[in-house]
Amino acid sequence: MAGTKENYFDLVYQVVRLIPRGRVTSYGAIANYLGIKSGARMVGYAMNAAHAHLDVPAHRVVNRVGVLTGKHHFATPTQMQESLEAEGVKVENDKILDFEKVFWDPNTLTLD
């Protein structure tokens, strides 16, 4: 079973690597893209473990309304916000401003 979890985490990380700079997505949108209904919690577990993978932009994954729920899993409580702001994403009171405008839905991916 551990191999299954690791494979799932790898799939999550592949999707997270596709999030464009200056955009965010949600745990649920990733789970939906991967075909795992009610899998947002598992995506959250993957994001909590992502910090060992420097090529996974975990700061771009937020909850379904744009709240930085994963901020406590970064080196400092402000690192997630600082990383987003460095990409031009505006954050106020731990929430993405203009969330609808910066939200990226992985289901819009097209395979060329």
From TrEMBL:
Q: Which UniProt keywords apply?
A: DNA damage
Name listed for the protein in its UniProt record: MGMT family protein
Q: Does the keyword Chloroplast apply?
A: no
Every Methylated-DNA-[protein]-cysteine S-methyltransferase DNA binding domain range: 10-89
| PANTHER family per the UniProt record, alphabetical | 6-O-METHYLGUANINE DNA METHYLTRANSFERASE, ALKYLTRANSFERASE-LIKE PROTEIN 1
Can the keyword Translocase be found in this entry's annotation? no
Q: InterPro entries in the record, alphabetically? A: ATL_DNA_repair, MethylDNA_cys_MeTrfase_DNA-bd, MethylDNA_cys_MeTrfase_DNAb, WH-like_DNA-bd_sf
